[in-house]
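Lecture notes, unit on protein representations.

Consider one protein chain, 245 amino acids long.
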Amino acid sequence: MIVHANNVMAHIPDVEGVMAGIATILHDRGVFVAETPYVRRMVEHLEFDTIYHEHLFYYSLTSFNHLLERNGLTVVDVEEIEAHGGSLRITAARPGTAPRSAAANAMFAEEDRIGIGTYAYYQAFGEQVPVLIADLRALLHDLSSTGKVLAGYGAAAKATVVLNALGESARTIQWVADRSTYKQGRFIPGTRTPILAADHIFQHRPDYLVVFAWNYIAEIAAQLAPFHAAGGRFIVPFPHPKVLD
């Protein structure tokens, strides 16, 4: 028996109750597989745009294992994957039913080495995020002051967080394109930046697109290859603002 929870653990308010339920329904020799964004990558890449009201928890392997063990399960394997800027695929089972993998042991040791459970580990994140925001503001103002037209791509929650963090500098971004018809014709909360159809990119050809859905940059760049071929450029905000060639 396999119980899986992909990209849901960060959204659950009663995480102890849900984990207790998983442990209750899991067969004695069953496994629980969860995918969840990795707090280490969030910290290392300054991904503050993933911190918003829907995300209640941010896990390391160590903290996730504490949650598991409080409910009668334990980590037996882990794999780091690229989804959402860096995620963990964690396999858990009842203690004693499967040996813990070398990959899991190595990650536990590495998290202990870097002090992932300490206040000091997260302090630098709080200090560096304002620097990233200031750098992004400066880049946008430099470009707009020379007459360049700036727009955005991807009206996800990430865009809302970044645009509101920019404050008045968000005005340099004239609109945000998104392929979802449910978002088109609406506005980014807080900044009132218009959300338009992706076709608007080709009709009005801005000079730069700030890619708020940066975790899908390869896919987006492929979709918008004609924009790039015509001289348009992408701006990726994380881990440091940069213009892609």
